[in-house]
Amino acid sequence: MLAGTGSDVGKSVLATALCRIFRQDGYRPAPFKAQNMALNSYATPEGLEIGRAQAVQAEAAGIPCHTDMNPLLLKPQSDHTSQVVLNGKPIGNRDAYDYWRRGEKTGIDFRQEVCSAFDRLASRYCPIVMEGAGSISEINLRDHDLVNLPMARHAGAKVILVGDIDRGGVFASVYGSIALQSEEDRRLIRGIIINKFRGDLRLFDEGRRMLEDICGVPVLGVVPYYKDIHIEEEDSVSLEQKRRQWAEGKVNVAVVLLRHISNFTDFDTLERDPRVNLFYTNNTSDIQRADIIILPGTKATLDDLLELRRNGCAQAILRAHREGKTVVGICGGYQMLGQTVSDPDGIEGSVMTLPGLGLLPIHTTMSVEKTTRQVTFTFDGQECRGYEIHQGVSDTDQSILQGDHCIGTYIHGFLDNAPVINHLLKDKASSNIPMQSFAAFKEEQYDKLAAHVRQYVDIDRLYQIMQSDD
After folding, report:
1. Residue of 19, 313, 331, 406 with catalytic role
2. What is the pLDDT of residues 415-452, one digit of tens each?
3. What are phi and psi of 150, to 5 degrees?
4. Which residue, 52, 142, 269, 283, could crosslink 40 as a Cys pair with Cβ 3.0–4.6 Å?
C-alpha cells in the first residue's frame, strides 16, 4: 500500500508506476483503492463506474478495469453532500456528517463491501498495488477509516509512506504520520518514499539518513519532480496550474472553468496538440477571444448553468458563437447547450428548471438512473471510442449532435480521437500535423514513468519488503 502524509503527495502516480514496473517484471498486478473521492470517473467494460485513477492504473498494468479496483466512489455534489457509487452503481446521496450512520440504517456494511472487493481482486491478480487516501494521520476519523491502515491490516499489506517535499515540512509530516499511529499500525509501515524533489539530490543525503534515524523506517527513494511525463491527473488541484492566457499563433481553446467540473482529463489530448493553446478560465473577455470554447462535464449541471448566467460567461459564450467561434459541450456541457434543463424530482438540488444556452435543439430532464457505458462511434467516416457517464435524459437518441459551428456530445474521451481534433482544427490551424495515437502516447508515458521511478526508488529492496513474512 502506498499511503500518504496528505492529499496530492503523488500516491496515485507512484501506484501507476508500480503497476507498470511489476507488469514489466513479469507479474500480473492490479490496482486497488477501497474508497475514492473524485469527480473524475470512468466506465468499465461492463458499463459500471469507478474512479479514473484506478482505470489509469489498470491500463498501466495492462488489464481491463473493474469495479473491484475501486468499490466505493464518492462524487462530491456540494461542500456537504456526495453521490455514493457502490460497486459501480449509484446508491444515492449522502450528507458527509451522516454518511456512516445512514449507511448503517440502510443495512449497507461498507467495510465488508470493500474488503470483499479486495478479496475477489486478490484471487485473480498478484501483487495488488493498493492506494490510501489523503493523510493516514487523521486520528479523528480512524474508527471509520476504510481505505488506509485498516484496509492494509485486512490485506496483510506492507505500507510505504509517501511524503511530498515540494510543499515543505516533510520531516514533520513523515515523522508525525508515523508517530500518530497505534503500535500495531506503525509496524505495518515498512518504507518511506520522498516525492517531488527539486534540485540536487545530494543535498538531501543527510536528510535521508536523519529521517531513517528518527522514524526507524528505511527511505526507499527520493523521486525528483518531472515535467516531461504526462500521466492523467485525478485531482482538480492540477487545474490551477492550467489557467494560462490567450496566445498568438495558436488555436486558442478556452475550457470554461465550472465550479463542479468533472472528467477534465477529456482535454489532455487536445492540450498536447502543438497547434493548440488550451487554458481554463471563467474570464468573459478570454472566452470571447478564444477560437474554440468548451463547456466541460459537471456534477451539478443546473447549479453550474445558473452560475454561468450570474457571472456573465453564458452571455460571453453566446456572443462568441454569434461571431463565428466554435462551441463544444461535453456531457453536462452538452445539456447546457440545449433549450432547457429540468430537474423536477430535485435530484441535483433545489433548482427545478433553467433555460439552456439554446444552441442545440434538445431538452434534458434529470433522472435517477445513470448511464454508464463504453461506446464506439463514427466521426468523419472513421471509428472512434469513448465512454458515457451521465445523469439526465435528452429528447434525442443522438450521443453527438452538431449545429451551426456547435457540437454537443455525451461522450467522454470524444477529444481523444484524432478525427475529432482534426475536424475542430481544420479551418483554424496553420498546419495539419499528424498526431501520435492516444493509446501509443499513453503506453510511452507509462514506460517513461516506470523508468523514472526505477531510477530513484530501490525496487529490489521493495521486492524484499513485499516478500518478507514479518
Report:
1. 331
2. 999 999 999 998 887 666 666 678 899 999 999 999 99
3. -60, -35
4. 52
Question: Does 115 qualify as catalytic in the annotation?
Answer: no
pLDDT at 100 over 80: no
pLDDT in tens, 283-311: 999 999 999 999 999 989 999 999 999 99
Given CA atoms 375, 378, 382, 386 in this order, what sign does their dihedral have?
negative
Rounded to two decimals, the pTM is 0.88
331 flagged as catalytic: yes
Positive or negative, the CA dihedral 163, 165, 170, 175 is: positive
Q: What is the layout of strands, in order, in the sheet containing 189-197?
A: 2-4, 159-164, 189-197, 219-224
Q: How far apart are CA 181 and CA 137, in angstroms?
A: 7
Catalytic residue (one of 66, 321, 390, 412): 412
The β-bridge partners of 49 are 43
Rg, C-alpha atoms of the chain: 23
Set of cell numbers at residue 387: 465512454
Q: What pLDDT sits at residue 430?
A: 67
Are β-strands 276-281 and 251-256 bridged in parallel, bridged antiparallel, or unpaired? parallel
